[in-house]
Amino acid sequence: MIELYYAEDDANIANAVKEYLEQKDMRVQIYHTISEFKQALEMHMQMHVHVHMATVVLLDWNMPDGHGDSLCQWIRSHWKELPILFLTVRGDSSDIVSGFQHGADDYVVKPFALEVLYSRILAVLRRTGNVTEQYLSCDEIQMDQNRHAVFCHSEEIALSEAEYQLLWYLMQNKGRTVTRAKILEAVWDANGSYVNDNTLTVTMKRLRDKLSQPACLKTIRSVGYRMEDTI
Fold first, then answer.
1. Nearest to 2 by CA among 19, 27, 22
2. What is the reported pTM?
3. CATH number of the domain located at residue range(s) 135-227 in this protein
């Protein structure tokens, strides 16, 4: 899911954008000041938590406690590849120039149609690549594929290779029921090691215990398993 962090001090505009984009299967986090926005990103950076980490950033240029160019520059100093769009009022060409100078990827002029904003967000993601694709999440479970690390409730969890690969396969298929046979084939047989059905049962039990019996990891009786968000 695309996670959009949105810095906007106008509640009416922010809520309209949030409602529209969430209908497009985005998750939108609104911050009304630059300070709030920085605190949210710093929390993820300091705690190494990537659940609901921004996929793309939308910045209003005129905020109560500063301007978008300074925030854009601050973001770039910590996340060099995080896609950034900024919003500026019509005719403020100096804002546009400053935005690009400080690392923005694109801009949208106010007032804007919601459809146009949505298309520009998708265009930026296509151009820059979705850098947060390295992160998979379901409820309070997060996987950092680059670091081969798993977190649950912000705490890193040590998994065996089989447990990690099982969780990864279920995360990759989040929202879909996968059969036991498919899991055995993907996690074990793909590596050329034959195992019996009980191996999956034991590995699943250990995985659930380490993740504190997560509600998002469901057993589909006589079929297999499914991961889906519950919060």
1. 27
2. 0.59
3. 1.10.10.10
Nearest to 68 by CA among 151, 1, 7: 7
Alpha-carbon gap, residue 46 to 53, rounded angstroms: 13
Maximum Cα–Cα distance for the chain, whole Å?
68
What number of other Cβ atoms are within 10 A of residue 82's Cβ? 20
Pick the closest to residue 117 from 36, 56, 69, 62 (CA basis). Answer: 56
In the chain the first and final C-alpha atoms are separated, in Å, by 14
Cα separation, 112 vs 49, whole angstroms: 33
Cα separation, 231 vs 214, in Å, equals 11
Closest C-alpha to 87, from 73, 105, 108 = 108
Is pLDDT above 50 for 130? yes
Distance, CA of 97 to CA of 49 (rounded, Å): 33
All CATH 1.10.10.10 domain ranges of the chain, comma separated, are 135-227
CATH superfamily of the domain spanning 2-129 = Response regulator (3.40.50.2300)
- 50 band by pLDDT with thresholds 50, 70 and 90: very low
What is the bridge-based pairing of β-strands 62-63 and 84-89?
unpaired
